[in-house]
Design a protein that fits this description.
Strand order of the largest sheet: 2-1-5-3-4
CATH topology: Ubiquitin-like (UB roll)
CATH architecture: Roll
CATH superfamily: Beta-grasp domain
Shape: globular
Strand content: 35-45%
Radius of gyration: 11 Å
Order of helices and strands: EEHEEE
Number of strands: 5
Number of domains: 1
Oligomer: single chain
Largest sheet: 5 strands, mixed
Helix content: 10-25%
Length: 68
Protein backbone atom coordinates (compact mmCIF):
# COMPACT_ATOMS: atom_id res chain seq x y z
CA UNK A 1 0.00 0.00 0.00
CA UNK A 2 1.34 3.44 -0.88
CA UNK A 3 1.19 6.68 1.06
CA UNK A 4 -0.07 9.85 -0.64
CA UNK A 5 1.50 13.05 0.63
CA UNK A 6 0.97 16.68 -0.35
CA UNK A 7 4.34 18.41 -0.23
CA UNK A 8 4.56 22.19 -0.34
CA UNK A 9 8.02 23.54 -1.11
CA UNK A 10 7.80 26.95 0.55
CA UNK A 11 7.92 29.67 -2.08
CA UNK A 12 8.11 27.23 -4.98
CA UNK A 13 4.90 25.23 -5.29
CA UNK A 14 3.12 22.05 -4.27
CA UNK A 15 3.68 18.44 -5.29
CA UNK A 16 1.41 15.43 -4.86
CA UNK A 17 3.62 12.45 -3.97
CA UNK A 18 2.95 8.73 -3.88
CA UNK A 19 5.44 7.05 -1.56
CA UNK A 20 6.02 3.48 -0.47
CA UNK A 21 4.56 2.17 2.81
CA UNK A 22 7.93 2.39 4.61
CA UNK A 23 8.75 5.91 3.35
CA UNK A 24 10.67 8.35 5.53
CA UNK A 25 10.81 12.13 5.44
CA UNK A 26 14.17 11.76 3.66
CA UNK A 27 12.27 9.93 0.90
CA UNK A 28 9.95 12.94 0.63
CA UNK A 29 12.94 15.18 -0.07
CA UNK A 30 14.33 12.71 -2.60
CA UNK A 31 10.95 12.56 -4.38
CA UNK A 32 11.07 16.33 -4.99
CA UNK A 33 14.72 16.31 -6.03
CA UNK A 34 16.26 17.71 -2.86
CA UNK A 35 18.77 16.33 -0.38
CA UNK A 36 18.80 16.57 3.41
CA UNK A 37 21.68 19.06 3.05
CA UNK A 38 19.50 21.38 0.95
CA UNK A 39 16.17 21.32 2.79
CA UNK A 40 14.24 20.38 5.93
CA UNK A 41 10.82 18.79 6.14
CA UNK A 42 8.32 20.52 8.42
CA UNK A 43 5.24 18.90 9.94
CA UNK A 44 2.93 21.38 11.66
CA UNK A 45 5.75 23.96 11.25
CA UNK A 46 8.27 21.86 13.21
CA UNK A 47 11.27 20.13 11.60
CA UNK A 48 11.22 16.33 11.59
CA UNK A 49 14.19 13.92 11.32
CA UNK A 50 14.81 12.59 7.82
CA UNK A 51 14.85 8.98 9.06
CA UNK A 52 11.43 9.22 10.73
CA UNK A 53 8.63 7.32 8.94
CA UNK A 54 6.07 9.50 7.20
CA UNK A 55 3.01 9.70 9.45
CA UNK A 56 1.04 12.57 7.91
CA UNK A 57 -0.54 13.41 4.56
CA UNK A 58 0.74 16.98 4.31
CA UNK A 59 4.24 18.40 4.76
CA UNK A 60 6.11 21.61 4.01
CA UNK A 61 9.69 21.72 2.78
CA UNK A 62 11.98 24.64 3.62
CA UNK A 63 14.99 25.03 1.34
CA UNK A 64 18.10 25.86 3.33
CA UNK A 65 20.26 26.71 0.31
CA UNK A 66 19.13 28.65 -2.72
CA UNK A 67 21.30 28.42 -5.82
CA UNK A 68 22.16 31.48 -7.81
Amino acid sequence: MSTNVTCEIIGEGTHELELGPEATYGDVLEAVGLSTHEASVLVEDSPVPEDRPVDTDSVRVLRLIKGG
